[in-house]
Amino acid sequence: MKKIKRRDFIRSIGVSLVGGSILASNVASSDVKTQFKWKMVTSWPKNFPGLGVGAENLAKIINQLSNNRIKVKVFGANELVPPLEVFDFVAGGGAELGHSGAYYWKGKSQACQFFSSVPFGMNAQEMNAWLYYGGGLKLWEKLYKKFNLIPRPAGNTGVQMGGWFNKKISSPKDLKGLKMRIPGLGGEVLAKAGGVPITLPGTELFTALQTGAIDATEWVGPYNDRAFGLHKAAKYYYYPGWHEPGPTLECTINKDAYEQLPSDLKFIIDISCKAANIDMLADYTSKNNQALQFLISEGIKINEFPKQVMKFLKKISEEVIDKIGKTDAITQEVYTSYKKFQEEVTPWTNLSEKSYINFRE
Ligand code: CA
Description:
11 strands; 14% strand; 5-stranded mixed sheet; alpha/beta; 6-stranded mixed sheet
């Protein structure tokens, strides 16, 4: 074969070196065809701060990393299915992806709750450690396999706030008869503490609090709570969110759809979920901080729960979770792994993060 001089070669393909990079990128995007048109159903209103944004963000990462070989379209709550039907819809193949929280599926298995948040359980950093490097994700996969789903961590809010109260909480007695919107395990703990847990969707919280239909509500943290105007309907803002110390959000993937993918696209899905998982926590940490400063400037009273109230709630939480952890074989396996990891990681958290933060002040 005749050797072509570099200068002649450039002339022969008819592009200047400056134009070459533009041409190359045009070729790349028009050459790659979308091979998989996927739907993502979510439990959040479209573009809802934090959660909905997190789902959109995950879709964007998948589209971009795969150069649109997978093209994901996101649907907000009720656009294709109601928020609490995401699990079944994805399992049945109605959509390939779901973005939600595992504690909504306790009706499927009590074990699900350990993959989102547990009262007095692990924070975001510890949850990620358990899921990625402590066997947690393997158990989660085992649990979801029989539902034809593959789970991936895909977001975290960080430690939530204790909630908005129109009654002052000075002692455990103040929890008696307290009508509070608090879902999941936290609600079960409140019931055992003598309170009345109520389940309401986020959009109804403001009116329920303002009209006195409820005495208190938890939601997420300053970022989301401010968006609902909860500071205009309650006197006291309590911390910390003992009931949700670092909730993991999930991406569920239809197993058949996932298994159709070539291995590079499988990897892209996995790594996109990991990126979205970290990104949501950063978004919450940044925006919570800004919203907290706003609430302080508005003169909102922000109180720490009294020690004796927290001690009381912790004791009841352990009883409630211990009982739930024994529901069946798989729940017991998950609970045992979760509990063991929390016990083992706590000494390290104490002498690293906790000690450092105490000294920083
Ligand atoms: Ca919450």
